[in-house]
Amino acid sequence: MGAEKPTLPTTCFYSNFVDLTSPDNLEDLDQTLVEVLEKIHPGCRIFVYKGAYEKDKNTNELSACSSISGELPESRRYFHVQPILNKYSDKPLATIVMLSPEPIQPHDSFPIITQIYTNQIGHINRGSLDNLTGLLTRHSLQSHVHNIQRTLTQKKRRAKDTELNYALAFLDIDNFKSVNDKYGHLIGDEVLLLITHLMKKTFRDNDLLFRYGGEEFIVILTGCDKEQGGLVLDRFRKAVESFVFPQAKRLTISIGYTVFHKDIHYDTLLGCADKALYYAKENGRNSCYNYEDLVAKNLIKSQEYIEGEIELF
Questions:
Q1: Are 145 and 266 in contact (CB under 8 A)?
Q2: First CA to last CA across the chain, in angstroms?
Q3: Among 4, 215, 227, 309, which one carries the catalytic annotation?
Q4: Do domains 10-126 and 136-296 have the same CATH topology?
Q5: Which of 29, 88, 165, 238 pairs as cysteine with 23 (C-beta 3.0–4.6 A)?
Q6: What is the Cα–Cα distance from 155 to 132, expressed in whole angstroms?
Q7: CA–CA separation, 102 vs 2, rounded Å?
Q8: What is the Cα–Cα distance from 42 to 54, expressed in whole angstroms?
């Protein structure tokens, strides 16, 4: 027998809806969604994952159009997994995972709350997306880095949590100026859009993609250490190298990346990745280098390390 649906006063629902329209960034919105759902599902632990949720490394992503409920026998806990669908894609915007010692029955207001959440994501993104590519802009980058480092700090304090790794990469299209000079800016924009398409095709839903400026992009890889990040980024480099552009035909891309540390300053983090990118540019282009490896091999000098909280604007 399933658990009874909790009942709350109507005024509480209106308050929840108003709360969800308040955040002006995606991280605060996710946290507010968790708080709202915990109010109407007492006793549940709520988690919000970007994109589709993978139960573990050996399982495929859950279906984008179905929810799943069940029991975890090893811990005697129940779970409910609910994708929040994206009408513009077959992949979820996010996935809600609920854990409880009792069977879970989502509340009647659940669809309304998730719809408000979806609308609010659209509202926030309209102010933080690049007009040409639709990727995140450099103006939102510092906020995302700050929130990742806050997550790393919280994880460090909880010894039982599994290690969570992030990597940040600079990507730069090689000889892009010659494309604009030879074919014009319209074809240059076409190249940027096709590079964006390859990025979305190669990287995962929970990776963060930014257009940093001009022909330069940034990717933040979630759940990737130095070795894993290198494999993912080099796969993208090869995808660009083998792609045939309609006018420009063959192009390549150079990549430099570094791994996150919870205490590293925002400027230092970007400086490390930028040094690795510069090395790639100066050593033949069409390559991917890791900052930590280059320093260890004495191929570059280490970036000046600024420790402490990130200054936000």
A1: yes
A2: 53
A3: 215
A4: no
A5: 29
A6: 36
A7: 8
A8: 25
The model's pLDDT over 1-55, given as tens digits with 9 standing for 90+, comes to: 444 444 443 444 445 556 666 666 777 888 888 888 888 888 888 888 877 665 5
Give every CB contact of residue 43 below 8 A, 6+ residues apart in sequence: 100, 101, 102
Topology given in CATH for the domain delimited by 136-296:
Alpha-Beta Plaits (3.30.70)
Q: Compute how many other C-beta atoms are within 10 angstroms of the C-beta atom of residue 282.
A: 10
Query: Domain extents for the chain?
Result: 10-126, 136-296
pLDDT in tens, 132-185: 998 988 888 888 888 888 777 776 555 444 567 899 999 999 999 999 999 999
- Residue 255 carries which side chain, given as an amino acid letter? I
Which residues, 6 or more positions from 30, have their beta carbon under 8 angstroms from its beta carbon? 48, 94
Verify whether residue 215 is a known catalytic residue.
yes
